Amino acid sequence: MILADPQASEALGARLATLVAPGDVITLSGTLGAGKTSIARGLLAALGLPGEAPSPSFAIVQPYAPPEVRLPVLHVDLYRIDDPDEIEELGLDDAAGDSVLLIEWPERAPGWWPEALALALEMLPDGTRRLTASVPAGWRARWQQI
């Protein structure tokens, strides 16, 4: 899938928001500026978040909960994680069943979310983004709606 601009990335996030449920994990990979946070912002806005969602780069985990959003979401940025063992300290496993996990930079934690909807963004020379999805069994029927 080709995403023409940040608005297209946000629109994809908004479409995902109509399909997510607690317990879902969506990973977003790609270089800096590829559009990972734009997808996350679109999803959060469609879930009801007023204003623009900040990047969780410094907080690492940015939680959102009702009534701020329709369902609980943990927006996670693993960019500053040096050792995958540090992920255990974030408590993501405890929250995973009750929340949607949006994980940026999942390559910092290989193997942690094998059943995630894995979205990879690549910047193309013309400024567009190529989105490649690895769609697990639990997402196949829903992904057809994208």
Automatic annotation (TrEMBL):
Its Gene Ontology cellular component terms are: cytoplasm
Query: Is Lipoprotein a UniProt keyword of this protein?
Result: no
Give its localization: Cytoplasm
Q: Which UniProt keywords apply?
A: ATP-binding, Cytoplasm, Magnesium, Metal-binding, Nucleotide-binding, Transferase, tRNA processing
Keyword Metal-binding tagged:
yes
Q: Which GO terms describe its molecular function?
A: ATP binding; metal ion binding; transferase activity
Task: Supply the Pfam families for this chain.
Answer: TsaE
Gene Ontology biological-process annotations = tRNA threonylcarbamoyladenosine modification
* Family matches, as InterPro entries: P-loop_NTPase, T6A_TsaE
Cite the PANTHER family for this sequence. TRNA THREONYLCARBAMOYLADENOSINE BIOSYNTHESIS PROTEIN TSAE
Q: Please state what the protein is called.
A: tRNA threonylcarbamoyladenosine biosynthesis protein TsaE
Its source organism is Sphingomonas glacialis
Question: Which gene is transcribed and translated to give this protein?
Answer: tsaE
